[in-house]
């Protein structure tokens, strides 16, 4: 469903524009921002408002505070510091410590100059955010003359700032930011009208997390590659020995049903044919490559070299690739080799004019670590949201925006 974007927004001089961003970033032990990618991705939209002489009033959540007031370790203050370094000196960042609505927030906006940014503190300091409370949403809505949603990472949630605020601003402009528009376009077009062959690569720990995506994609893709811990539930459904590998026993029958459905539809599901195995998840643990079955007492922690080659052959012929979920325990080297290899193959596929889309926080981190993120067609900022799109789930937050 096409919606209006920030290109359609008329920003008056000094006009406060509410911008729902996704600044839910990891923090270091000393409290600083560990990875500023989500902040950097929001800057183009913010700059559109500032350069037009508006006041960008940014709101976001961070982590999972209790919702009973400000909590140490969950303040957006470190984000404000990063924002000030990312913006030039002409744009001042005003941080509203401990508050996201009411007189304190309003006073910060009133004192800001055209071209300034006001960052409200963590929305989840208030229980009304997660509860979708209408009164809380109305208080937020009162702070702005227009609303911009640029938070794809939370687009699948019905939180107050995502749905309640635009619902309370029906007489005002409600548009998508540049990042949200790009996310919806890439993922939407990939699913609706992909360049073929269309290959989905799914990984991560659990089949249950990807079940809806697999069901929705089976009718749309030409093939599915399955790696990561979830592959062992499928291998168990085929009667393969998986040793001590991760498996969702209650999902084995569902995995068998999906394999049968794929076969009936003439769609290939590619599973690992060899595995990098160890007896514990430890960088220094003895390991071996196991073809076929995983021995008793061992667990598969990454795809093996034959699987990397087999998956690569499929990906090199693809016209569109959507990847969500790592191929192994990539955060513990050397079990990151398979994930890194798939990242490199996707870079090569992009150079061969394939459309390559990566979704999911872990997968995005993996392609960043592999140094190929900039070479891919699109790296999504939202793990859960991109997965919901792959499942075909509509977003109420997007439905609240003005139709194009």
Provide the CATH superfamily of the largest domain: Phosphoglycerate kinase, N-terminal domain
| Percentage of residues in helical conformation | 25-40%
- Give the DSSP E fraction (strand runs of 2 or more residues): 15-25%
CATH top level of the largest domain?
A: Alpha Beta
Unreliable spans: none
Largest sheet: 6 strands, parallel
Helix/strand structural class: alpha/beta
Describe the overall structure.
The chain is of the alpha/beta class and about 400 residues long. The protein folds into 2 domains: about 5-175, Rossmann fold, CATH 3.40.50.1260; about 185-390, Phosphoglycerate kinase, N-terminal domain (Rossmann fold). Helices cover about 40% and strands about 15% of the residues. The protein is built from 15 helices and 15 strands. The protein has helices at about 35-50, 75-85, 100-110, 125-130, 135-140, 160-170, 180-190, 205-220, 230-235, 250-265, 305-315, 335-350, 360-370, 385-390, 395-400; strands at about 15-20, 55-60, 95, 115-120, 145-150, 175, 200, 225, 270, 275-280, 285-290, 300-305, 320-325, 355-360, 380. Strands 3-4-2-1-5-6 form a 6-stranded parallel beta sheet, with helices on both faces. Helix 6 links the parallel strand 5 (about 145-150) and strand 6. Helix 5 crosses helix 6, helix 8 (about 205-220) packs across helix 14 (about 385-390) and helix 12 (about 335-350) packs across helix 13. The longest helix has 15 residues, at about 35-50. The protein is elongated. It starts with 15 loop residues before the first strand and ends in a 5-residue tail after the last helix.
């Amino acid at each position: 469903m096409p919606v209006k974007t920030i290109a359609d927004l008329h920003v008056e001089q000094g006009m406060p524009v509410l911008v729902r961003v996704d600044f839910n970033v990891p923090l270091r032990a000393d409290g600083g921002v560990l990875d500023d990618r989500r902040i950097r991705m929001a800057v183009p939209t913010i700059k559109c408002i500032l350069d037009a002489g508006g006041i960008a009033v940014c709101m976001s959540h961070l982590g999972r505070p209790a919702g009973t007031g400000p909590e140490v370790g969950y303040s957006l203050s470190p984000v404000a510091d990063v924002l000030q370094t990312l913006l030039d000196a002409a744009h001042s960042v005003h941080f509203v410590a401990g508050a996201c609505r009411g007189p304190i927030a309003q006073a910060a906006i009133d004192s800001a100059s055209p071209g300034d940014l006001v960052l409200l503190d963590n929305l989840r300091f208030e229980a009304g955010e997660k509860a979708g409370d209408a009164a809380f949403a109305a208080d937020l809505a009162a702070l702005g003359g227009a609303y911009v949603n640029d938070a794809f990472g939370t687009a699948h949630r019905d939180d107050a700032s995502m749905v309640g605020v635009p619902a309370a601003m029906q007489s005002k402009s409600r548009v998508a930011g540049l990042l949200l528009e790009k996310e919806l376009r890439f993922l939407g077009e990939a699913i609706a009208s992909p360049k073929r062959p269309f290959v989905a690569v799914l990984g991560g720990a659990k089949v249950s997390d990807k079940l809806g995506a697999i069901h929705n994609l089976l009718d749309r893709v030409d093939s599915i590659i399955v790696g990561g811990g979830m592959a062992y539930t499928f291998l168990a459904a085929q009667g393969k020995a998986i040793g001590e590998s991760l498996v969702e026993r209650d999902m084995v029958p569902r995995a068998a049903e999906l394999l049968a459905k794929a076969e009936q539809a003439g769609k290939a599901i590619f599973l690992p044919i060899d595995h990098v195995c160890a007896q514990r998840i430890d960088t220094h643990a003895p390991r071996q490559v196991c073809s076929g079955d995983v021995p008793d007492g061992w667990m598969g922690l990454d795809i093996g070299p034959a699987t990397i080659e087999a998956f690569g052959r499929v990906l090199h012929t693809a016209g569109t690739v959507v990847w969500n979920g790592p191929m192994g325990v990539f955060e513990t080297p050397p079990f990151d080799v398979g994930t890194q290899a798939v990242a490199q193959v996707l870079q090569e596929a992009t150079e061969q004019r394939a459309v390559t889309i990566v979704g999911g926080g872990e997968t995005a981190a993996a392609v960043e670590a592999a140094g190929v993120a900039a070479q891919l067609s699109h790296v999504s900022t939202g793990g859960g949201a991109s997965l919901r799109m792959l499942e075909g789930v509509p977003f109420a937050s997007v439905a609240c925006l003005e139709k194009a």
